[in-house]
Write a structure and sequence with these properties.
The structure is a homodimer of 350-residue chains. Chain A has 350 residues and is α/β, with parallel strands linked by helices. The first copy, chain A, has helices at 2-5, 8-13, 34-40, 45-49, 52-66, 79-83, 116-119, 121-134, 147-156, 164-172, 174-198, 215-232, 251-257, 270-277, 289-294, 297-311, 331-343; strands at residues 71-72, 88-91, 95-98, 140-145, 202-206, 240-243, 261-264, 282-287, 317-321. In chain A, α10 (164-172) packs across α11 (174-198) and α12 (215-232) packs parallel to α13 (251-257). The A-B interface holds A 161-162, 164, 167-168, 171-172, 211, 214-217, 246, 248-249, 266-269, 288, 290-291, 294-296, 299, 303, 306 and B 161-162, 164, 167-168, 171-172, 211, 214-217, 246, 248-249, 266-269, 288, 290-291, 294-296, 299, 303, 306.
Amino acid sequence: MPDLENSRFLRACRQLPVDATPVWFMRQAGRSLPEYKALKGTTNILDAIAEPELAAEITLQPVRRYGVDAAILYSDIVVPVQSVGFGVEIAAGVGPVIERPFTSADDLDRLPEFDPAEHTPYVLETVRLLAKELAGSTPLIGFAGAPFTVASYLLEGRPSRDYVQTRKLLWSDPGLFHELLDRLAQYCIASLRGQVAAGASAIQVFDSWAGALTPEDYAEHVLPSTRKIFSAVADLGVPRIASGVGTSELLGHWADAGADVVSVDSTITLDEARRRTGGRTAVQGNLDPWAVALASWPVVEAKSHAVLASNAGRPGHIFNLGHGVRPETAPATLQRVVDLVHAAPVGSHA
Amino acid sequence: MPDLENSRFLRACRQLPVDATPVWFMRQAGRSLPEYKALKGTTNILDAIAEPELAAEITLQPVRRYGVDAAILYSDIVVPVQSVGFGVEIAAGVGPVIERPFTSADDLDRLPEFDPAEHTPYVLETVRLLAKELAGSTPLIGFAGAPFTVASYLLEGRPSRDYVQTRKLLWSDPGLFHELLDRLAQYCIASLRGQVAAGASAIQVFDSWAGALTPEDYAEHVLPSTRKIFSAVADLGVPRIASGVGTSELLGHWADAGADVVSVDSTITLDEARRRTGGRTAVQGNLDPWAVALASWPVVEAKSHAVLASNAGRPGHIFNLGHGVRPETAPATLQRVVDLVHAAPVGSHA
């Protein structure tokens, strides 16, 4: 698909020149869109993900509405562990809840080898539908949860601020902790390979909560699994994006691990992000999602220009938020951001 | 008091050579100590703070138990606003709760000029008792809440993760936001000056939640009040410490604003912290408080040595945690950390 390969998004991921800065938004599909609420109704998220026609349509909604430069699969990082029967639900207003959390080595038996064709055929079908629908125009980003972040759900049993069980296992039984991460790395790799085989043009690994660890603990206990994942998908030739929040101190580690693109949260400038990766990766970000949700347009406009100015016209910038779209965000504001980014002459801020 | 001036803590704050690295812990007094629970019983925190003999004794407990190199006043950052009648309680298991949150310019009238002698004579009395008790041996750190962090309580009405009201005011009515911060800067300055006049040897400004803002918003909306505070206490000649959590990207701003010492959380090394301040300040930190609470001694020991190694024997290091002592921390572990730090030859890690 030569057209896709020349898309702004994929070219920027590869640090090649573009005609305009590509832009998409983490969580662009879903809860902030009225057409999503209308379409999904009261269907549970995991049930919606399991319906390929519905999941594909939800994925396409923000592409149609905003004209963003990439689609991202409508799915969830807990889907693989849920699909093997670990006992995961997504509770409304809470997030992932685990029926019986991971507490000992015996629980490894509840995580058999993950096969996307066997366990999540509906995900592959959704990707195939989307690849067909989007072919030649907009790249589709496939994604998976990084082992640490998925493990934190399995260990805590629900979303956590403190990660007490996760930290305890990491420090008291690093061998078992690493075994758990290895098991989940296989899930991540198999899921990503399956999505690319079905038609995804790029992959993003969400290590959303990795910033809870000190960089030293991250490097010792988590980085090896990240490195393994990026190595295991290198032969696919698609851009590999690493992302998280509160992870501004980990960007250099992600570059070391083989990321082609790093997501940058709103705590540093893109310029500083490039310093931390030594210019080895493209950068994705990093408009403050709170400003987009709560501030008036002149404030959002100024902050959008500041993000572009911080990139200073260098190749390898994908415009995005520093974190996911807040549910209370007005779609009209996101539209104005897309239009602003597309209208800005590339290099004009150099 | 020549002896105090030669104390390890004050010398390290001034980046002078010391015979051993000074160590104290944020939240060393209070909830992690059995003798605190026994002494305080069911007395409300704000009531305990208002009893000088009790507050002084609580302040001294960790000094006696651990032999730490500094005492920190037992008080709370909401005490000044509570003392003028703004309607603040500290609810058990919750934190500061505001009866009628700050919602408009009219609420500025509820924040009259703060006079520590008139509004919080008990705080000054506690400091005087402590200065007498500690004289010639251990320096006492006085402290106050930075305007942004105190404002976030007044605006949100209770502890928050999202700071929605705070962000809204900052972006929708920066003039009123700055007026509120100015008002609270007067509280901070008057409180700190009162404590130093009563005998405190150093002051720490807690901008605990400043990391919720992007560094750009911090610099534009908050830094001016921080600068004003540090300038307004410069003539006192006591070290000025800036602290927060999630604030590793703000260290350069704090150095610009006049801090003599910056608290470093556990997300960066001391070496990187010094890079960010350009070596202009001493550094305080930065052992992971979660490890101290949850990990076994060999893990804590290795991490303590890593902190010392990161300082590499340079003058101007005050050993501390990256954030406050977790309530579940075993006092015996903190004792071992104190002993390890004191036993480590200064410069041995250079």
